Amino acid sequence: MPGQAQSNARLGYIDNLRSTMIVWVVVFHTAITYSHIGSWYYSDPKPADEVSSFVFLTLEVHSQAFFMGLLFLLAGYFVPGAFDRKGFRRFMADRFVRLGVPSLVCNPANAARLWTADRRGGPQPDSVVGAVHLGRGTATRHC
User: Fold this and answer.
1) What is the DSSP string of 70-114?
2) What is the CA radius of gyration of the chain?
3) How many Å apart are CA 102 and CA 79, to the nearest integer?
4) Residue 78 buriedness (CB in 10 A; 0-12 / 13-18 / 19+)
5) CB atoms within 10 A of CB 70
């Protein structure tokens, strides 16, 4: 059926935009690692100089202003079609597998990190990222 083949066709420009934004997210989080601006799982022990800090700050502020919103917009754009195609039950089951299972695995692991940080008696983290960062400046595995 010609209509069937067309509805399953990928939109190359959307794939390219999504891929570009995902690469940008990786660049953004790498900048946090080296800039010490923001909170992240690992920070480079050597602080950045003033010029580098300014460049990182500019990159981080401008990136955060649009990239997550754009990724959510792209994801939301395809929800009505997926819902119509799959129906309520299959759509919700798929969302549970994609979002629920990782949350069920990662949330207890992150709660254990917070508990461990609290038991150390050190400064209290304000987030999971802060708890992991209390790991004495070492990179740790995370979900």
Assistant:
1) HHHHHHHHTHHHHHHHHHHHHHHHHHIIIIIHHHHHHHHHHHHHH
2) 20
3) 20
4) exposed
5) 14
DSSP conformation class of 125 = P
Structure tokens, 126: 């304000």
Confirm if 124 and 118 have CB atoms less than 8 A apart: yes
Task: Scan for tokens 């195609």, then name that residue.
Answer: 85
| Span 68-117, pLDDT tens digits | 889 899 989 999 999 999 999 999 999 999 999 998 988 888 778 767 76
Sign, CA dihedral 65-36-31-131, equals negative
Q: How far apart (Å, rounded) are the C-alpha atoms in residues 39 and 131?
A: 10
Model confidence pTM above 0.90 = no
Query: E strand or H helix at 128, and its extent?
Result: helix 128-133
Angle at 99 between CA 131 and CA 103, to 5 degrees: 30
DSSP 12-63: HHHHHHHHHHHHHHHHHHHHHHHH--S--S---SSPP-HHHHHHHHHHHHHH
